[in-house]
Design brief:
Layout: E1 12-17, E2 20-25, H1 31-37, H2 39-45, E3 49-57, E4 68-75, E5 80-86, H3 112-115, H4 119-129, H5 140-154, E6 158-164, H6 170-190, E7 192-196, H7 197-205, H8 213-223
Parallel strand pairs: 5-6, 6-7
Antiparallel strand pairs: 1-2, 3-4, 4-5
Length: 230
């Protein structure tokens, strides 16, 4: 599979919630057109989308710049669907190191995730920091940092989605097992959901007249050759 960075892509961004898809151009589309294209999502979520935010940041209250979430769908109900997207980044094996978090995430006599109502996340973060737990392909530390920012700014009114491009290889088996392990440990606490871009595309193909068929054809030719759709 050809490896491609975000900077090299054309920044067409596919966002998925449930069984219905919306797409938007990060650079050119106006907020109005983004919201119009989000009608299928609104129908699936039983709540209209009031805003689509790319590279969204949610401050944790700690010093420094928080990580960027690829896209956040803000619903009129007040709930936020936060999506972290990976293309081929997950294929790179993460090196073992002493603590994936900076010291600021573990201040003396204070448990940041637990104090915000996320004790399972706190235990997992501590296990990774103390090297009792390690993820080779799934970026669990990044997801926990996102979660800390989301809960700090939004309380419990969010869910965290992980959307990635899958491929048939030994790394994929490890990646999937790590996703399951992460979900088993903290999934219920953060309303965690997972979807591959292959699954997303199948749903997009069956979305009927609510989806731009020309865009579907473009995606199929560019990203979804038959060998990738296993």
């Amino acid at each position: 599979m050809e490896r491609r960075t975000r900077a090299q892509s054309d920044y067409s961004f596919i966002s998925i919630t449930g069984s219905v898809v919306s797409h938007a151009s990060k650079q050119a589309a106006s907020q109005r057109s983004r919201l119009q294209s989000s009608a299928p999502i609104s129908k699936t979520l039983d709540s209209p989308v009031s805003a689509i935010r790319f590279e969204a940041q949610h401050h944790t209250g700690l010093q420094g710049i928080p990580p960027n979430l690829d896209v956040c769908l803000v619903l009129e109900s007040g709930h936020t669907v936060a999506i972290e997207s990976k293309f081929t980044e997950w294929l790179a094996r993460k090196r073992l190191r002493d603590g994936p978090f900076k010291a600021k995430y573990f201040p003396p006599a204070r448990k940041l995730w637990t104090s915000r109502g996320l004790p399972a996340c706190q235990i997992l973060a501590s296990d990774m920091q103390n090297r009792r737990e390690h993820f080779l392909h799934f970026d669990a530390p990044q997801m926990l940092k996102h979660t800390l920012g989301l809960v700090t700014q939004l309380g419990s009114t969010f869910s965290l989605w992980y959307v990635y491009f899958d491929c048939e290889c030994p790394e994929s088996d490890i990646h999937k097992a790590e996703i399951r392990r992460f979900a088993d440990r903290v999934g219920a606490e953060i309303r965690f959901k997972v979807l591959t871009y292959q699954e997303l595309f199948r749903r997009l193909e069956s979305a009927g007249s609510s989806i731009d068929r020309g865009y579907v054809t473009y995606l199929e030719r560019r990203y979804f050759a038959p060998s990738q759709m296993g």
